């Protein structure tokens, strides 16, 4: 359709890819068909930057199970197998015990979906579903607006290739602070749903 307009110049202003590398080849093929006598110019947008300029987090699963130690299951997009060792070394330098499960079929096929369970320590827990925009800083915005005395007791994120990330979060918020919590939700501005009374949560996670 663009070529039918016979443009002198085509400028593509970014946000070509959201959701990881899986669409990169398709986008490259589509762009290769664009024609213009003065050229075709393309730049990255913030969505593309989050994929190419930073590590792309594809999965993040955590459930509170211990008062001292947190076990977090994280998926990271990479270009080559060599990057995995670099990531592990970087985390270990920060004092984080790290186990590479990249070749562990049970972990990839089953355990990744089973991170959770009942948490006796998660008192005053609220569970909310959020839609995070797939852009750099979305998680930081969420965390920086939370009160530091509200503990995150559950966090589940999977990248589904959409313009937003589906996130399930458990937060320990005393009943007396519900007014402050509702203010936090308004200022955050992300779509959300209260799942605290969801029967699936009550049965398997509460």
CATH class of the largest domain, anyone? Alpha Beta
Separation of termini?
53 Å
Low-confidence stretches: 49-53
Output the CATH homologous superfamily of the largest domain: Biosynthetic Threonine Deaminase, Domain 3
Q: Which structural class best describes the helix and strand composition?
A: alpha+beta
Number of domains: 2
Could you provide a short overview of the structure?
It is built from 7 helices and 8 strands, in the order E-H-E-H-E-E-H-H-E-H-E-E-H-E-H.
Topology:
Layout: E1 10-12, H1 24-32, E2 40-42, H2 46-52, E3 56-63, E4 72-77, H3 82-93, H4 105-109, E5 125-133, H5 138-145, E6 151-158, E7 164-172, H6 178-188, E8 192-194, H7 199-204
Parallel strand pairs: 1-2
Antiparallel strand pairs: 3-4, 3-6, 5-7, 5-8, 6-7
Q: Top keywords for this entry?
A:
2 domains; Biosynthetic Threonine Deaminase, domain 3; 206 residues; alpha+beta; two-stranded parallel ribbon; 6-stranded antiparallel sheet
